[in-house]
Amino acid sequence: MDNTEYFERFGIVLNDRVVRTPVAIASMAGWVDGEYVVARKDHVGAAFIGGYSIDGPAIQASHEMVRQGRKEFISDDPLTDIAHQIRLIEETDVICGVNLRGGAPESYQAVAREFGSRIIYEIDAHCRQEPMVQAGCGEHFLHNPEALVGTVKALKQENVTVSVKIRAGVHRDDRALAADLWHAGADILHVDLMDFGYQKVRQIRNSCPLILIANNSINTFERMKEMLSHGADMVSLARKSDERTLAGLDAAITRYADEHGWYNSPKQLCRGGDLRALAFCCMPVKNCPLIPTLERAGLTREEYVAIKMDAVKGTKLEEGKQTCFGSLSWCCKDSSPCMFRNLTLRQAGVSNQEYMRLKRELANTLIKRLFRDNNDPC
Ligand SMILES: Cc1cc2nc3c(=O)[nH]c(=O)nc-3n(C[C@H](O)[C@H](O)[C@H](O)COP(=O)(O)O)c2cc1C
Ligand code: SF4
Ligand code: SF4
Asked: Does this model's pTM top 0.90?
C-alpha cells in the first residue's frame, strides 16, 4: 500500500508524514531504542524512543536512578547516541519520536538544532522518579506548568513537531493544561491515563484540537476501541509492546477501519460522545444534550446550522431530501438503522464506509471551526 491509501484509511499525519497504523510504542528508558523499534516495525505507525537525558542535571539523575536499580540509557554524549538510534528507525516506515529529559529549554533547543524535522521532540513531563523531578524535568513540569509551556515555546521556535508526555491527574486540571499546551504550540499530547479511563480521553479531546495519543494498559482491541471512540487518535503501549500484542492491535484496527470507514468514530453525543459527535447530530429542534453542548461552545443554534451546512456544501452529505432534516449532514451514525438514510446513500452511490469517511471529514472541519473561532469551546 502507498501513503495515499494509508491516509484514506486512517487520515493521521505526524511530523508531516502519513501514519500507517494508529498503534505506537511508548518510551521505556533503558529499553526502547532503535533496535527495539526495528524489531516491531511491521506493526506500529510511530515509536517514542528513550527517554534520553540531555543535560547535566538529568544525566546525573539517570546515574542516580541506575544506582537505585533502574535501567537507563546513560551516555555522556546523548546526541551521538540519539543520532545512531534515529538512523536505525529511518530505515523503516515508523515515524520516530524521541522522549527527552532536561531541565532547561535551551537543552531541548540544542537537540532540535541537531536533528531538525527528522524527529518528533517529546518532552517527558511524566517521569515521577525523585532524582529526575529534582533535576527539573519529568513530573516537575506538571507541578510547574509555566516551565513546561516555556519549553514547548522554545522548541516551537526551532520549527519542529512537539509532543508532551503527561500523566493524567497530576496537574490540578488536565483540561486547562491541554488547552495551555495547545496555545503554547504543542502538536501532540501523549497521555498516560493511569486509572482514569475513557472519560479522561473525552475531557481532553473536548479541550484542545491536538493529536491525542492514549496510553496505559491499552493492550486489547476492546480497550483500544474505547479510547479511540472517545477521542484518541492513536494508542501507545510500553510494557506490553511485544510483537504479538502490537500485531494483534494493528490487524484488528486495520480490519475495523476497512469495514467501517472511520476507525475512531465517536459515539452519538447523547450516548456520551465527544465534540466530534456533532457530525452526527440532528438539527437543534428538541431538548437534548446538543443544546447545552452548543451553549458551552458559545455557538447559537443558527451559527451551528450555518457552520454545518457550509461544511458539507458541494459534498455528497449535502444530499438527502428524503431524510428527516433534508440533508445527510444531520444524519446519525451508520450503526443506527435507518431506511431513509440508507436509501439516500444507495441512490447517491455512496457506501456505508464512504458515508463514515465523509462524516470524519465533517467532524474535522467542525472541530477546526470550533477551536479556531473559540479558544475554549467546552
Ligand atoms: C521501565 C519503564 C521505563 C519508562 N520510561 C519512560 C520514559 O523514559 N519516559 C516516559 O515518558 N515514560 C516512561 N515510561 C512510561 C511508559 O511510557 C508508559 O507511559 C507507562 O508504562 C504506561 O503504559 P503501558 O501500560 O503501556 O506500559 C516508562 C515505563 C516503564 C515501565
Ligand atoms: S441532536 Fe440528536 S444525536 Fe445529537 S444529542 Fe440530540 S438527539 Fe442525540
Ligand atoms: S433520516 Fe434516519 S439517519 Fe437521518 S436523521 Fe432521520 S433517523 Fe437519523
From this structure: yes
